[in-house]
Amino acid sequence: AQSVTQLDSHVSVSEGTPVLLRCNYSSSYSPSLFWYVQHPNKGLQLLLKYTSAATLVKGINGFEAEFKKSETSFHLTKPSAHMSDAAEYFCVVSELRQAGTALIFGKGTTLSVSS
Amino acid sequence: DGGITQSPKYLFRKEGQNVTLSCEQNLNHDAMYWYRQDPGQGLRLIYYSQIVNDFQKGDIAEGYSVSREKKESFPLTVTSAQKNPTAFYLCASSMTGRNYGYTFGSGTRLTVV
Lengths: 115, 113
Known about the structure:
With 115 residues, chain A is mainly beta. In chain A, 0% of the residues lie in helices and 56% in strands.
């Protein structure tokens, strides 16, 4: 079974400083990996995805993630945090199931941004 | 604009009652999914469907049921057998295949009173 582990349940940064949200994955085959963001009481929005093309993936709102097979990691970064980045972030892996595929979510990292 | 509509946004249910959550999409996606979200637990898969008239149990299907009679619709029934139904429920849809991300609805918050 595929799985993801988000290494921090809560990250706090100051506005204008870099953001790093850490994610390790476990997969028996070349994985498809995603990062989603959820603002309070809202649905989820896709930030970016890795599907075995370029290892450095650029997403929306200035976020990017690097796939490192040797470290089984897919960390999310942003050079400069903005107040509007405060939200919950999920690292996600796609898993083959009996019928089709399903996305398996990590437990989430809450990002707080202070002024 | 295409998207996924979940209704209602908030739902209150008395213990012992069944309740059905609606999910409709106009994205022409074949696959649809139901997830449950609890604080600190991430999202957990309840049921999923890749095509009309077929669906599969996810990781926490006990106490839930679904139907997929139309491509656009994937309603979820929370039955009285679900021991802890109070949660935030999210519906999603996608093209089939593991490289596609999901489009999510805005969710239904169910509270058992």
